[in-house]
Amino acid sequence: MTGNQHTELVLKKSSLGKSVKQHVFFTLFRAAAVINALALLIIVYFLIKNGWSAITWDFLTEPPRDSMTKGGILPCIVGTAYLSLGAILISMPLGIGSAIYLNEYARQGIIVRLIRFAINNLAGVPSVVFGLFGLAFFVTWMDLEVSILSGALVLGFLSLPLVIGSSEEALRSVPDTYREASLGLGATKWQTISRVVLPAAFPAMITGGILSLSRAAGETAAIMFTAAVYFNKQLPDSIFDPVMALPYHIYVLATAGTNISQTRHLQYGTALVLIAMVLGMNLLAIVYRSRLRRKV
Amino acid sequence: MRRQRKEGVIRNFFFFIAFISIAILLLILFFLVKAGVPIFDKVSVTEFIFGTYWYPTASPPDFGILPLILASLFVTLFSAIIAVPLGVMTAIYIAEIASPKLKELAKPAVELLASLPSVVIGFFGMVVVAPFLQETFDLPTGLNLFNASLMLAFMSVPIICTISEDAISSVPPELKEASLALGANRIESIFRVIIPASLSGISTGIILGMARAIGETMVVLMVAGGAAMIPGSLFDPVRPMPATIAAEMAEAPFQSAHYHALFAIGIILFVFNLLFNSIADYISHKHRQVGAATL
Question: Which domain holds residue A173?
């Protein structure tokens, strides 16, 4: 074997080894992505398979009957709608306002870093701790009792970091040339923000709003001590009434009482309604966002 | 002049709104401390944290939360063992390997996984995974440490994946191009160039994913089994801190020692979160990706 042939062989060998190695790792990475997608599909599959039969018109439009072993989930749907809408009524103005400050006004510095640190922390505070806070502050100290208002306030605070994040992203996506053009025409900073930047960023902010709506709708631990009750036949009259809510209803049916296996189909049905709402809103936001991106 | 004053007022107004996040965080801490600290008239801080018996309704009651803390740490650790490889590998797949079309599918899939309400994942763990585990491994109960870790893993994967993917995608393309031009193939470029360059972002994602797992409530409440004992094996039932609060708050009489003890557990969870976030903040500021300079 001449020296030349030898090097050629080594080169071939090593490049073969390299490509095998590459192939193995690529397959692994692909498998990881597939596992995630599978997890999502399997969960949705089981809920649809076992919950589909429970979904009837009566199930969606009637209150529960016979100590919650029969009947529907209308009060839960209404309660969840009130709570999540209330939450974004609180988190959207605060979140968009914070994002405007952080993205349009603030200069890098210790205060801004502190605010960002607080936002990141707020995003990580466990939902049950939000629940404790709501119990001690809104329910007890402010004497709002277990009510829609207490729950909406807690959920509003809980979803605030999400709204700030998506609003900031929306503001960042507005090209600086827009701002420069407006300022160059003699507009003040506020005129620029309110008439140029915000209208351009608005559609993307709506997407963020939909996402936080869905987050609030699925939240359980934060409303356990602040808004939700086991059973309430009446629909709420005012924001000072407690409500039933979809996520809490699932938890109650699945863990408490003596009829756990008897109400299994109702549990699946309620879970199916909840994820249909949540995934529906998320898909809407995702599709809407990808359309926006294509436009830009 | 008037115009300038108006602009100043508007600026201060937005500063005030942005400041609300700090105010809320402090308010949460204040009310947790206010309702939690009275427990330390009954038991000392060390007895509370290192006590191994949690019998809050016995007489006399025991308020030792070590089993609860350990349960939280174990479920977080085991979920990380599953979630970290899965999350980081998925991130690499999305950022570096997937064709644009598959990327358009994989990213929303991860987002949808993140959006699943925790109560639904807990429910799934209870009615599908638990019976399966019980039969397959012949266990007394399928509601245990392992099941909870598995479910938690799928809640932290999306966080780890999203943050890591951002970090990997923001590695300047020149670095990869240089590596490829020197004869490295794609996988070598990924391991030797892209991952080292995005390591700080990936670590931030891992830390925040673990923070999510330690604070997650509904999953551990429904799936972990609920026994307040120090677990001896992976298949023992446990009772992590958030589950304890959620399960017992409804029964704890207002302003009782039990009530204060549950708020004190809330303080510990708050501090854990603060700790995780401080580490993440430190890493992302200390090792900020500044183009090629980080390599």
Answer: 69-295
Q: Helix A3-51 and helix A264-295: axis angle, to 10°?
A: 130
Q: Nearest CB to B27: which of A19, A137, A267?
A: A137
DSSP string, B279-293: HHHHHHHHT---GGG
In chain A, DSSP finds a helix count (H) and a strand count (E) of: 12, 2
Close Cβ partners of B153 (under 8 Å, ≥ 6 residues apart) = B79, B80, B82, B83, B86, B213
* Vertex B183 angle, CA B181 and B187, to 5°: 100
Here the ipTM equals 0.91
> Which residues of chain B have a CB within 8 Å of the CB of A106?
15, 18
Token couple for B158:
């999306």
- CA-to-CA dists, residue A94 to A155, A162, A167, angstroms: 13, 11, 11
Closest CA to A106 of B12, B207, B179, B153: B12
The reply to whether A20 falls in a domain is no
Closest CA of chain B from A2, distance in Å: 25
pLDDT at A1: 45
Record the pTM: 0.91
Report the CATH number that the domain containing residue A115 is assigned in CATH.
1.10.3720.10
